[in-house]
Amino acid sequence: MPFQKVTPEKLSTAVTRQIEKLILRGILRPRERLPAERELAERLGVSRPSLREAVAELQAKGLLSSRAGAGIYVADVLGSAFSEALIRLFAEHDEAVFDYIAFRRDMEALAAERAARLGSDTDLMLIQTLMDKMERTHLHPNPSEEARLDAEFHLSILEASHNVVMLHMMRSMFDLLREGVFYNRQIMFRQSTTRTALLEQHRAINTALQARDPIAARAAVEAHLGFVEAALNDQRRADAHEDIARQRFAHEQER
Fold it and tell me: pTM for the complete prediction?
């Protein structure tokens, strides 16, 4: 029989496995800096040579990268789910925008339902912390920080769903949203009535999650993204009317 003696796992291998799991579960995020070598070795309870060996293996696997004089970072393992040509098409056609929102509504509603059932107390505490930060930044006239926290809030729910495939796929989609590929989130947050409505919707999502109510959490996310879709539709119609008015004015000036 081809049995072999069981040997204790090398320390560097144990370190490699632990860091891999943290990346897989989304706890270590792309482009996030690892602690300094001495601190990380102390946290892991291993020698610095063992840590260096593990880091070298993770770099060879493309999971970590080093920056001269700056330290070790989690590699940008997400990349893009789409080609550059397809991203340009997304940016140029409204159809992609509304399909994107429908896709988010389906995926995030499921994630919220899972988070209410499967999220740890730590997961829900993080979601509550982000909600508290949104409440504070809502009082500021500049909405840019609230818009950033909005994305973090939604991603924290995806993390709390404990589905690693869903998490990494949706992180890639959120990167495109941050880059303004689908629509400009800043414009939506500049409108005070819309901004207030969005905050109320986030409160409803958070309340359902903290109560561990999967049905209410799903419904709150669906209502929120339904509102976003309607707001974008209104914005598109207003922009179209403005374009028509400008064209008429230009035509009258030429006459």
Answer: 0.75
